[in-house]
């Protein structure tokens, strides 16, 4: 990223998003994190993080590249006296990635993406309030921290006028799942767990409302993508180790089983019973007592 592009992106911290063009269709989706890498200088490395507001899209002219809308959320100054997250640090943590090659725009595998996020969080932990005052680093200002009230309001808007198989308002299901949560994160994700899957809202748009990265990552994980077998989707949630997602999925399954049995939806009952048994057997094999299991 050039210095001019970087300074333009920093302005977006205050007044809006910016767009980037891609020669080929990116694999990233709305809500995914992105990192900006400075290359071609004496000190190369990561200098910013943000998220995609949109899925890849074409402009009206077919010959133009794909574009995505991006929102920077944390950036360090171009000439930061505390240094940047250097190429050497990145290579030491994630070896098989073309760090330092200009314009690679490549996607990290999920495991490496988690490593990078941990490395970045450790890096920004080096900064103090004094560094912010001096302008060494800047976060997007004025973004509200969305919580339970905002989650209920968003879910109610997103599911407005939707009906379930029994003709009841769809919102009753996410409200039940959310109220079953043990803590704030489980409640928020419970209220919002079907929004991306069943409405026009994207992960980027939800994140733009002020929900944290952890909430968005959990919601994306809880979204059953078209074409993915249901049990593969459930196994992915379990393999992630994301305890919020796992508990929300359990609450979702218990309520779906209750509704399915009352409505006589045998196929759905079988599907959800299989998923619940898989989760329970997974935890019994691990001997994990941190999960509260109810009789299905």
Give an overview of the whole structure.
There is one protein chain. Helix content is 48%, strand content 12%. With 296 residues, the chain is α+β, with helices and mostly antiparallel strands. The chain has two domains: 3-139, ph1033 like fold, CATH 3.10.590; 148-286, Hypothetical protein af1432 (Orthogonal Bundle). A hairpin with a 6-residue loop joins strand 2 (33-38) and strand 3 (45-52). The model has no long low-confidence stretch (mean pLDDT 85).
Strand content: 5-15%
Mean pLDDT: 85
Number of domains: 2
> DSSP helix count?
13
CATH superfamily of the largest domain: Hypothetical protein af1432
- Poorly predicted spans: none
- From the spread of the alpha carbons, the general shape counts as elongated
In short:
The chain has 296 residues and is α+β, with helices and mostly antiparallel strands. The chain folds into two domains: 3-139, ph1033 like fold; 148-286, Hypothetical protein af1432 (Orthogonal Bundle), CATH 1.10.3210.10. The protein is built from 13 helices and six strands.
Outline the fold blueprint:
Layout: H1 3-15, E1 18-22, E2 33-38, E3 45-52, E4 66-76, E5 85-86, H2 87-93, H3 110-124, H4 129-134, E6 137-139, H5 148-158, H6 172-179, H7 184-192, H8 195-198, H9 203-208, H10 213-222, H11 230-240, H12 243-263, H13 266-286
Antiparallel strand pairs: 1-4, 2-3, 3-4, 3-5, 4-6
Helix pairs in contact: 5-7, 6-7, 6-12, 7-12, 10-12, 11-13, 12-13
